[in-house]
Structures are given as C-alpha cells and as structure tokens.
From TrEMBL:
Keyword set, alphabetical order: Cell cycle, Cell division, Chromosome, Coiled coil, DNA condensation, Mitosis
Coiled coil ranges: 435-469, 498-525
Biased composition (Acidic residues): 117-127, 674-699, 1150-1182
Cellular component, GO annotation: condensed chromosome; condensin complex
Localisation: Chromosome
Region of interest: Disordered: 102-129, 671-707, 1086-1191
SUPFAM superfamilies: ARM repeat, Myosin rod fragments
Family the UniProt entry places it in: Belongs to the CND3 (condensin subunit 3) family.
Tagged with keyword Coiled coil: yes
Broad class of where this protein is predominantly found: nucleus
Polar residues composition-biased segments: 1086-1097
Protein name: Nuclear condensin complex subunit 3 C-terminal domain-containing protein
Domain of life: Eukaryota
Length: 1228
C-alpha cells in the first residue's frame, strides 16, 4: 500500500505490517474531519483496518494509534466543526464495531499466518480466542485513555473528553467493574465543572447510567439523583435544559421535571409542556396536584410561547386521551379547588370555537347538576358573554326568574342535608373549635418561649459585659492603691515636699473612691442581672415543660378524633360539592341582566334569606353581596340592606322579648369580657370609653347600670363579620349609613378584636376594622397606632402580616399626611419607619418580611414616601431622611445572606427594585445615591456579612447595581434625558470613595475594572466632569500614599483601567467645553476662556438632575456614611434645558462631602460641598475666603491645575486639619 494513497479494502487485506495500517488510519481520520457525508464508508474502512490489525497480532498497536489520533483533536475549541465530526465518527465506529463483534466475533490471529506444524499440532486455545471480546478490549482501552485527561486544566480538553465519553457510554456492553466505577465517578465530578459546556456533556453522559440498577431497587438511582441536583441547582439554563431532556421519567422524577415549569428560562419552561409532559404516557396517571400545577403555571405564564405550548398540550394531547369529552376531562381534574380550570376551559372553547353553537344543555339538567356540569355551564356562559355569543346563551341559559327558582331549590337541598346530619355537624364543629383552641395554646406558648429566650440572651449579654468591665476595673484599682501606698510611704521621708505629695494623694484617693464606687455599682448590677437571669432560666424550664405538655395534649386529642374525621369526610365532601354548584349558579346570576324586574324581585328575597339563615361559605357570601350591590338602586339602599342582614344574623340568637340595651361601654366596662392586657392593645378611644363608663358607675352608685347581653355564639359572630367584610369591600361610601355602621363597630368589631379564644374571629375583626379605616380617614388615623402595636407585639405571623397590610393600605389610601395629625393616637413617621426596620430584619418570619417589602415597594413606586419624615424634626436632617434609609434597607434585604432561603422576599425585590429604578430618572438617582453604601457594607474588610458562606459574589452585586442605575434602562426616557442623567456619575463618586476605604484588594480591582461600564456623557457639564476628574486624581494619590498596604497594591491591568477612565473623563471635559462654547455663541453671550470656566468649577452644577450623595443611615450602623459619605442639604436641580445660571444661589446647592487622603477634598460644587463641623471652623474658612474675594463681586475659588489645588488644600490643612470648606456665604 502506497504511503500517500488512500487505502482500499483489498490493500488492507494484503497488509502484513502495521505501519501500513497506521497510515491508513491517518487517511481515514483526515477524511472524517472534512464532512459527515462519507462517515459510513470510512467506518467500514477503519473497521477493516482493525480486523486486519487483530489478525496480524497488532491489536494493541491499533488501539494505541487510534487513541493517539484522537488526542490530536482534544484541544479543539467548542464549535470547531472538525472536532464535532471526529467525535461523531468515533461514536459511529464504536457502535458499528460493537454490533459486528456481537454478531461475528473477530479472530485474534489469522490461521493462514501460522506454520503447518503449528497448525497440525494444536489449535488455538479457547482461552486465547475468547480472552476478551475485541470491542470490549477496544472500548476499555479508549475509556482508560480518555479518563487520564478528564481532570485537565484546559477547558477545551475537558470538553472534548466528556463529549467523547457521552457518545461512548451509549455502546458499553461489558466493562470492568472498577473502570465502570471510575468512569461514573469522573463524570459525576464533571457535573460540577466550572465550565457550563463541560457540564452539559457530563449531564448527557450521566443520563446513560440511569438505566443501570442500583443494589437496592427501592432507592432512586445515583445517576438520577445527580441529574436532579443539576436540574434544580445549576446556574446555566443550558445545563438544566440538558438534564430536563435526558432525565428518565419515573414517579420520583416527574415532580422534579414539572417543577421546571417555574424555571427562569422561558425555553426550559416551554420544553416542560412541549416535550416532557407530552412524553408522559397518560395524564390520567398523574396526580391531581401535578395536573393542577401544569395547567396553572402554563396558562398563567408571562411568555406567549409558553402559554401556547401549554394550550397545545391541553387541547391536542390531553383532550384526545378522553376522546374530546370535556365532561370526562373535568371528572379527572380537580375542579372544585382549581384556580387553573377556568383558564383551561377558556382555552378549550377557543380551540373548538367552531363547535360552540352545537352545544346543547338540556333544561332538565338544571335540576340534577353535578360539579362538572355546573362548572361546564358556567364556563360556557362566561365565554359566550365575553365573545357576544348571545344565541348560545339564549338556548342554554334560562331567564333570571328561572335561575332564582333553581338557586332556591338547591338552597333547600342544602338545608335539608344539614338538618339530617345536624348531630354530626355539631360534633365536628365542637371538635374543630377544640382543636383550634389547642393549636392556639401551642402557638401562644411558642411565642412566649421565644420572648423568654430573647430575654435570657439579653441578660447573658449584659452579664458578660459587666463581668468584662469588672475585670478591667480591678487592675486599675490595684494600680491606684499601689501608687497611693508608695506616695504615703514617700511622705514619711522628711526631705520631700509634703504639700505637693498631699495633693497627689488626695487626687489619687478621690480617683480610687470613684473607681471603687463604680466597681460596687457594677457588682450590684451584676447581682441584679444574675438574679434576673436565674429566674428567667427557671421560668424558661417550666415553660418548656408546659409547652411539651400542651403539645402532647393536642396530639393526644387529635389522635383520639381520627374516627370522627373518617366519619365526617363523606358528608364534608358532599357538602363541599353542593356549595360549589351553588357558587356556579350564583356566578351566572351575577352576570345576568338585572333589567328583568320580575326576575330581580323574585331573586332578592332568596339572596337576603340565604345570607341571613343559611350560613353560606365565604365565597358564596361574597357573590351574594355583589349581586345585592348590582341590583340595588343606589348606595344608600345597598348599605341599609346589608346592615339589616347583619343585624338580623346577630339578633337571631336573642329571645323574642329580649330588649336589653347593649353599648360599647357596657361591653368593655365588663371585666369579665376584656382582660387588662387585652384592653391595652385596643385603640385609645375604646379605652377612654371604658374609663368613662367605669367613672360614671362609681360616681352614681344608685343608678342602675344596663348590663349587656351575652354576645352571640361564635358561629353567628363569624357569619356577621364575614358579611360585613364583603360589604365593606364593595361599598363606595358609608356616610349615608354611618350611625348603623358605628353601632356595628361597637357590637361586632371591638368584641372580635379582644377575642383570644377564636383566632378566626380576631382575624375578621382586624380585617373589618382595617376596611373601615380605608373608608374613613379619621378612623384610619386613630387606629394606625393600634395596628402598629399589634404588628409589633403579636406572636402570630399571620396576624402581624395582616396588620402590616392594613397599615400599608391606610398609608396608600390616605397618604403620609395622615401621620402629621395631632392627638394621642397619632403616629409619627420615625416610629413607623422603625417598625418597618424591625419587621424587615426579622428573619424568623419570612412571610412577614415579604409583606413588609412588598408594601414598601408599592409606596416607593407610587412616590408616597417622598419627604417622608422631614416634618418630624426641624434640626436633625439625618433622622428625618427616612425615605432614603428605608430604600437602603430594601436593598440590603435583597442581598442579605440570611434572606437567601426566603424565595418570596427575593422574588418580590427582584421584580420591584428594577421596576422602581427603571420607572423614573429620579428613582434611579435615589438608588445610585445609596448603592455605594450598600456595596461597602457588604464587602468591606471587616464586614458583618463576611462570616456567611452564601453571600453573593461582589462581582454579581456590583454589576447588578450598575445595571439598575444605568440611565439607558429608564422606560420612555428621551435621548436627551439619558445623556443628562447623573445616576452613574454619582455611582462613580461613591465607588471612588469605596476604593479609598478599608476594602480588600479584590474589591478595589473589581470596582476599577467596572468604572468603564458607567454611562457618563459630556452633557453633564464641564464643571461636574472636572470635579469627577479631581476625585479620580485624589483616589490615585490615596493609593500611592498607601502603597505599603497590600490592599492598595494594584496590578498592572487595574492601573491601566484607572488611567483609561481618567483619560476618558478628560476627553469628555473637552467635549463639554466645546458644547458650552457653542451654546454661549448661540445665545449671543461672550465666550469664556478655559481659565474662567475653571474658576467656577466649585460653584457650578451639572446640567442634569444631580441629587446629593445622601448619607444613608441604617438602623444599626452607617459604616460608609460615618467614614466618607456625609449627607448635607438636598441638591438644587437645574432646568431640563441644562442652561447655566450665573447667579446661582449657592446656599441652595449644598452637596455631599468627598473624603480625600487628608480628609478634605475640594471638588466641584456639583459633586460635593464640604460639610463644616464647627462654628469656629466656619468663621476661619469664611475669613480666608473673604480675603480672596473682590469687594465688588464675590468670586468662587479659582480652580487651576490639580496639583496647585492640592497644594492650596495642604496649606490650609497645615493650619487646621479639622477645617472643611463651606462656600454657602458666597451666594450673594
């Protein structure tokens, strides 16, 4: 065979030297990397070479040559066509070889090559012929060779090796157990490779191991576990997609696959419906929960493509499995409690719209409605009403009077069913109340335990602090005693001045007495706190025992009532189905035409009677209230009718001749009804009424006091409150019926608020009082304090969340001005802000955190917190800037490691924070003013968050902050507004300050590397840009002056990036000067020289809206604000046109302070106006500035070169290092 010619089959069969076969292998691989079209022919050729090599006893040489050739393509990058072709060629060759070897094994030695004597004397032994199958030997050799490089430091090598293994594992027949374990272990490690492209191939390879059974069949396959882990936790959507498509579908893996319908990647979500769910044999085999989640997530997805895939799955895959029978489909779904079925039915009707007119619902079917039929007819009615298909409605839906008759018959059926099972209902109600009481006791005990545990921790901390102070006091006292003893001994010497020594002795004795008294005070405090701690620990042990006993009693009671649960379940299901049928009929009635006067007159008594006597469930009560509102002639009639219904329900428990008067004073004056502790939580007006009632009774002992009757039973009280709640949700104006509603507050809501025996009654009391507060501003202002106290002191997380929702609704409805009213129950903004802080930081209640965050985000988006708290304190701006502090708290909550598992909170903030930033330029400016503080707090050298392992990386946080503050992301912003936006300008100033602070070298390098991503344009104005360049220069000087500190030693790339950023700002300054010169010419003014422009560098503002660098103070600390970012007055905004004002009032343009190496930095007034720390400093600075002023016209300090400015600053600092510049007096 020629060394250059391509081998042929005949030539291969004649080869006796492996060197000729080796050249043939090279030719084959050379052709294989060119195109895929000839791979099958090349595989046949390579297979002939292998067979020939085996026959001439060169099998090992063939394996070596093959792997040697394969190794040459391992360094090819992903996407290289040659590498992909070679990988596919190898896969095709191995599969062909394995198939052929299975059918016709290859003989290892050609019999024609043996001598006749050898041939005659003996045959090839079976051990040699069947030593190892050629295919197994080859695959074993190839896999061992590839595993040698699977841990390579080159990502391309790892990628190609795992890619080849992913192809090869499909054709593994037999393998050494040790090699099999090594292969699986290595691929499992590659699932955690830092490169996503490697992890994708590892997922594909590991998916083949799912079909190998584990030693214990009851356990899930190890490979399946690894793929599920990648499916749930991998950061790359492509890796999750590979796991999604390759994971085997079993009863344990299907829920994990369906969970990807909530994936952040739209393609992955779409594949769940278009591939995964479609591959499940029958949706009838799925559980109701999985089917519900599939429809609910798919039909409500925000992406149209995902919704389309879910609709296609429903109409083209699931429905055909039940022969397009909608009623049969509904029977296999969870119709009663499903929130997705209305959307599913709408999708079904849309896909079969041509068959809508063929639907016929017999009139006699209305008398025997099932759950499925009722839901079907209601969905059909909704669809036809939405699309104006009135012919279908007329044919299938009866008129209003007939519907009234239908609903009346089903209400009678429900009443008869309840009457026949009254004893069972009473037993179950008693059981439910008893269980609720036991649950309440356990919850209250848990809350008391937490409070006592916090007290023990607090006392322990105080004792440790006192012991530390005592340990420090003893050496000081001993030292003073030693000094005093030596002085007294010295006075005995006659040669010394006793008068001088006596003064020192008296001074030491006085100091010693002070230290001794201080020590005695510490000892006394230590004794008190130790006693308190001992008592608390004893009480804690007793409470723990009591809590264990309460839990045991509850569990014992629940176990003893299992039979009742089993007995009640059939009746409960039947009742639930009947109420669902009633709900569907009521929904149809609600959307009917109430112009039918006869039908309306027949319907209204039925609805009012049902509300009064039938004790409907909440959903039906809500629908009935809406029906009454729709059929009422005006708001006054509607309000009176609802009040009468509530009164009738309340009075139904009283006797016919019971005319006892009941008032709020009698309710709360009776000590048997309200405890003192409970009365403390009531609104002050209620407490005043109680006190007045008691005083009147004491002053007039002979006067007979009217005693309140017993309150209605809990079930009637709940019924009244439910009707009242849904009435208040619909009511638009209650002034027409204010007297009756005030009576309801006294007789229903206030007793409900102090009901600690039934949590549902108390919840309804809070809800209804909150709804009243939304309607009446005065009632909202007076009860805001009550809701705040309840949110702060309640143990129940749900009650806390409800109170916070009410507070946010009150503030949203009536505005923050409701906080400025005067009175005993007035709530100041500072107290409300502290409540927000404390609850948002309470990681023990994640749902409450989410509620507070959501409420704050809504207030911020509506701009209701602008100037929040500024009217509280006249002389303390930092305490008054509550809006900025709350915004910073939201940002810190998003990045806080302790909130990492709170997905509800993370999802709310992940949506609301970008929306807030992108909704308006002013919002973006506010976020940019606090982003530096947040980043500094998270990643400073001794940060409180450094101990957490799940803290987000500094790179991701920084990039997210830059993205949020990018002016190009603001919605509906014009190009001019984007160019004038100063959000990234302020971020640059903040980031430069962080570089100068105690941050690590990695953080400094990260910030410098991202400075070039900031959107800063020449339209900000030359003076602002000059101030930024000065800040950059000061940062560079600060880095040079701290070169001995390892954290300030930058690499060459960082230095280059900082220099590049400095140069880019210089170029922008030149462009800004040219723009301003051109603008001056257009306005007809005299063009100023560069030096004149520089002279105003400390008195000019940028053209855009530049807010001050507000010092954001957290509840605990404000690290960055304490060191460098100091808040001053709010910056004065310029006109949108960006015109320069020569007579700008500098008093209104105070800007934040920028810290330099020496502590003071002269910057453009647009950037920072230094803050004066003392009156003496102000006078000295003003005196220095006055010397440089012209008597005719005040002129700002002249800005020349950076070095000259720094030298002038050094001179002033040499005189007084504490002086900071204030140019407010230069405004005139």
């Amino acid at each position: 065979m020629s060394s250059l010619a391509k081998p042929t089959i005949k030539q291969i069969e004649k080869c006796t030297d492996f060197s000729q076969l080796a050249r043939g292998i090279s030719h084959v691989f050379n052709d294989a990397q060119s195109t895929l079209s000839g791979h099958r022919k090349l595989v046949i050729l390579l297979r002939k070479i292998q067979v020939r090599a085996t026959q001439i006893d060169s099998e090992e040489q063939f394996n070596f040559q093959f792997t040697k050739t394969i190794s040459k393509m391992l360094n090819l990058k992903k996407g290289e066509a040659a590498g992909d072709r070679i990988a596919k060629f190898c896969s095709l060759f191995v599969s062909t070889m394995a198939k052929q070897e299975q059918e016709n094994p290859t003989l290892r030695i050609d019999p024609s090559l043996k001598s006749e004597d050898e041939s005659d004397t003996s045959d090839v032994s079976d051990s040699e012929q069947e030593k190892e199958n050629v295919a197994c030997e080859f695959i074993d050799y190839l896999i061992r060779h590839l595993l040698r490089g699977i841990e390579s430091r080159f990502r391309d090598v790892r990628y190609r090796i795992v890619q080849l293994l992913a192809y090869l594992v499909n054709h593994i027949t037999e393998m050494d157990e040790q090699l099999f374990s090594a292969l699986k272990f290595s691929l499992n490690r590659r699932l955690h490779d830092k490169e996503s492209m490697v992890r994708i191939q590892a997922v594909v390879a590991m998916s083949r191991f799912q079909y190998y059974e584990e030693s214990d069949p009851s356990k899930i396959n190890h490979a399946t576990k690894s793929l599920i882990n990648a499916l749930k936790h991998d950061d790359s959507p492509e890796v999750r997609r590979a796991a999604l498509l390759n994971l085997v579908k079993t009863s344990r893996s299907i829920p994990e696959l369906i969970e990807r319908s909530r994936d952040v990647n739209a393609i992955n979500r779409r594949l769940v419906f278009s591939r995964v769910a479609k591959e499940i044999p029958s949706f009838l085999d799925l559980s109701l929960e999985i089917k519900e989640s599939i429809l609910n997530r798919g039909l409500n997805d925000r992406e149209p493509s995902v919704r389309a895939a879910a609709i296609y799955l429903l109409t083209k895959t699931w429905l055909p499995q039940v022969n397009d029978d909608i009623l049969m489909f509904l029977e296999n779904m969870q119709v009663v409690d499903s929130s997705a079925m209305p959307l599913a039915m709408n999708a079904i009707f849309e896909s079969h719209r041509d068959r809508i007119n063929t639907i016929v619902f017999p009139q006699e079917s209305w008398n025997e409605l099932t759950v499925e039929k009722a839901f079907f007819i209601r969905s059909l009615y909704d669809f036809c009403s939405k699309h104006d298909l009135y012919d279908c409605i007329d044919e299938n839906i009866p008129e209003l009077s007939k519907l009234a008759h239908v609903i009346q018959e089903y209400l009678k059926l429900r009443s008869s069913m309840l009457s026949s099972n009254a004893q069972l209902v009473d037993e179950y109600l008693e059981f439910h109340n008893k269980a609720e009481s036991l649950h309440r006791l356990v919850r209250n005990g848990e809350g008391d335990l937490k409070d006592l545990q916090r007290k023990v921790e607090k006392e322990t901390t105080i004792i440790a602090e006192l012991q530390s102070r005592l340990s420090e006091a003893d050496p000081k006292i001993n030292k003073l005693q030693t000094q005093l003893k030596s002085l007294k001994a010295a006075t005995k010497d006659g040669d010394v001045d006793k008068t001088a020594f006596q003064q020192k002795i008296e001074s030491l004795e006085e100091e010693l007495n002070e230290k001794t008294d201080e020590k005695d005070e510490f000892i006394l405090l230590l004794s008190e706190h130790t006693t308190s701690l001992t008592d608390a620990e004893v009480l804690l042990k007793d409470m723990e025992k009591a809590q264990v006993h309460r839990e045991a009693e509850r569990n014992k009671f629940l176990r003893g009532t299992d039979d009742l649960e089993v007995k009640y379940r059939p009746f409960g299901d039947q009742k639930k189905d009947l109420e669902f049928v009633l709900e569907q009929i009521l929904l149809i009635i609600e959307k009917s035409d109430f112009a039918d006067v006869a039908g309306t007159r027949r319907l209204m008594p039925i609805i009012t009677s049902a509300l009064t006597n039938d004790n409907l469930n909440e959903s039906n009560v809500a629908i009935c209230i809406r029906i009454i509102r729709k059929s009422s002639i005006d708001e006054n009639y509607f309000s009176q009718l609802c009040t009468e219904i509530i009164t009738d329900i309340r009075d139904s428990a009283l006797g016919e001749n019971d005319e006892t008067f009941m008032s709020a004073a009698s309710l709360f004056g009776n000590s048997s009804l309200v405890d003192d502790d409970e009365n403390d939580d009531l609104p002050s007006e209620d407490r005043d009424e109680d006190a007045d009632a008691d005083a009147d009774a004491e002053n007039q002992p002979d006067k007979r006091r009217k005693i309140a009757p017993i309150l209605p039973p809990d079930n009637l009280l709940i019924q009244c409150l439910v009707v009242l709640q849904y009435y208040l949700e619909v009511a638009e104006d209650t002034r027409c019926n204010s007297y009756q509603l005030d009576t309801l507050i006294d007789t229903l809501i206030r007793p409900a608020l102090v009901n600690n025996k039934n949590s549902r009654i108390r919840f309804l009391g809070y809800k209804t009082l909150g709804l009243f507060s939304l309607i009446d501003e005065g009632l909202g202002a007076s009860n805001l304090k009550f809701f705040g106290i309840s949110a702060s002191k309640a143990h129940d997380e749900d009650l806390k969340a409800l109170c916070m929702q009410i507070i946010f609704d009150i503030v949203s409805t009536h505005g923050v001005g409701i906080l400025d009213i005067e009175g005993e129950d007035a709530v100041d903004s500072l107290s409300l802000a502290r409540l927000f802080y404390s609850l948002l930081k309470n990681t023990e209640m994640p749902h409450l955190q989410a509620v507070v965050a959501e409420g704050l985000c809504k207030l911020f988006l509506a701009d209701l917190l602008v100037d929040f708290g500024k009217d509280e304190l006249e002389n303390d701006d930092e305490e008054a800037l509550q809006e900025t502090q709350l915004l910073q708290m939201l940002l810190m909550s998003y990045f806080h490691p302790l909130n990492h598992e709170n997905q509800e909170l993370k999802q709310i903030l992940a949506f609301c924070l970008p929306v807030y930033c992108f909704s308006h330029t002013k919002h973006q400016i506010k976020v940019s003013s606090i982003s530096g503080d947040c980043f500094y707090r998270l990643f400073r050298t001794e940060s409180e968050f450094a101990e957490y392992e799940n803290l987000a990386s500094s790179s991701s946080v920084l990039q997210l902050l830059i993205y949020w503050c990018d002016p190009r992301n603001v919605i509906n912003a014009t190009q001019a507004e984007i160019e004038r936006s100063a959000s990234h300008f302020w971020q640059a100033m903040k980031f430069l300050q962080i570089i100068e602070q105690d941050t690590s070298r990695a953080v400094k390098r990260l910030i410098i590397g991202n400075l070039g991503k900031l959107s800063i344009t020449e339209h900000l104005g030359s003076e602002a840009l000059r101030g930024l360049r000065i800040a950059i220069s000061d940062t560079r000087l600060h880095i040079l002056s701290n070169s001995s500190n390892p954290d300030f030693v930058l690499d060459q790339a960082s230095e280059k990036n900082l220099e590049k950023f400095y140069s880019s700002i210089g170029e922008l300054i030149m462009k800004a000067d040219a723009l301003e010169t051109q603008k001056d010419v257009e306005l007809g003014t005299v063009s100023e020289t560069a030096s004149q422009k520089s002279s105003r560098a400390l008195s000019r503002k940028p053209s855009g809206d530049l807010p001050p660098l507000l010092g954001v103070e957290d509840v605990d600390n404000n690290e960055l604000g304490e060191q460098s970012i100091v808040s001053t007055e709010k910056a004065k905004e310029l006109d949108d046109g960006g015109t320069r004002s020569e007579d700008m009032n500098v008093d209104q343009a105070a800007e934040p302070e920028i810290e330099t190496t020496e502590g003071v930095e002269m910057v453009d007034e647009n950037i920072a106006e230094p803050e004066v720390e003392s009156a003496e400093g102000v006078e000295e600075v003003d005196e220095k500035i006055a010397k440089t002023r012209s008597p005719e016209k005040p002129v700002a300090p002249v800005l020349k070169l950076v070095d000259e400015d720094l030298s002038e600053i050094d001179k002033l600092l040499a005189e007084d290092d504490e002086i900071e510049y204030d140019i407010e007096d230069q405004s005139e």
